[in-house]
Amino acid sequence: MSANVEIHITNNFERNLDEIEEFMNLNDCAYLFMPLLDELFATVIPNIERFPDIGVNFLDRNINSVEVINRIEKIQNVIKANKVIREYLFSDYLLLYLHDDNQVYLLSIRHHRQLKYDT
């Protein structure tokens, strides 16, 4: 069993939540935003805090394009060897987080129907 890690919410993650709320408002499903926050803070974040390796290693994937290879190389140059970017899927959302020895940084969250995915 893993020890709990410290969770940090990045500015980008907060911005993504605002964008999800706006997306839901524009698509007449604003009532889904509070359940997202409930699930995020009652289940998802505690799961990641307790089991930080629960997410799949984002960079361990089959790469089929030069553009993706270039972006992944840039990402790998920025993060240190002991840090891993992981993806966690829940409900209709994909969450990216950076995990190192004692800390997790929530980087990004997107609803699967949003068109783009920025990190």
Overview of the structural elements:
β4 and β5 form a beta hairpin. It is globular, with a radius of gyration of 15 Å. With 119 residues, it is of the alpha+beta class. The protein has helices at 11-26, 33-50, 66-78, and strands spanning 6-9, 56-57, 84-90, 93-99, 103-111. It has one domain (6-109): YaeB-like fold. The two termini are 30 Å apart. The longest helix is centred in the middle third of the chain and has 18 residues, at 33-50.
Into which percentage range does the β-strand content fall? 15-25%
Overall average residue pLDDT: 86
Instruction: Give the low-pLDDT segments.
Output: none
| CATH class division | Alpha Beta
**Shape field:** globular
Can I get a quick summary?
By secondary structure, this protein is an alpha+beta fold. Helices cover 39% and strands 24% of the residues.
How would you summarize the topology of this molecule?
Layout: E1 6-9, H1 11-26, H2 33-50, E2 56-57, H3 66-78, E3 84-90, E4 93-99, E5 103-111
Parallel strand pairs: 1-5
Antiparallel strand pairs: 2-3, 3-4, 4-5
List keywords for this structure.
119 residues, alpha+beta, YaeB-like fold, five-stranded mixed sheet, 3 helices, 5 strands, 39% helix, 24% strand
